[in-house]
Amino acid sequence: MYGILMALQFANNESPKLNNFQIVCDSPIFVKYYKREWKKNNGEPVANYHFYKQIVKLADELNVSFCYLPENSEHPDFLSAKLLAQDGLGMPFKA
């Protein structure tokens, strides 16, 4: 979730803003709960609801959608994105 939030903040801070794009996730759980407004079956919020609120606000502003693609996907764009994400793990960040 933090990576998704950082990507949305990056897109929002670009000049001009980046918008109308799709974020491909390797987590079906994120996509599932995003579509359910980050709530459990009983209506209570799922953990990290504060991240969800920030993500949905930026995603709505930027017209962003989310989809799931399994981690073992052989799609070339997904493989490139996976390598970039792994490279990003070594970068310093501010919390």
Automatic annotation (TrEMBL):
<dbReference type="InterPro" id="IPR036397">
    <property type="entry name" value="RNaseH_sf"/>
</dbReference>
<dbReference type="GO" id="GO:0004523">
    <property type="term" value="F:RNA-DNA hybrid ribonuclease activity"/>
</dbReference>
<dbReference type="GO" id="GO:0003676">
    <property type="term" value="F:nucleic acid binding"/>
</dbReference>
<dbReference type="InterPro" id="IPR012337">
    <property type="entry name" value="RNaseH-like_sf"/>
</dbReference>
<protein>
    <submittedName>
        <fullName>RNase H type-1 domain-containing protein</fullName>
    </submittedName>
</protein>
<dbReference type="InterPro" id="IPR002156">
    <property type="entry name" value="RNaseH_domain"/>
</dbReference>
<feature type="domain" description="RNase H type-1">
    <location>
        <begin position="1"/>
        <end position="90"/>
    </location>
</feature>
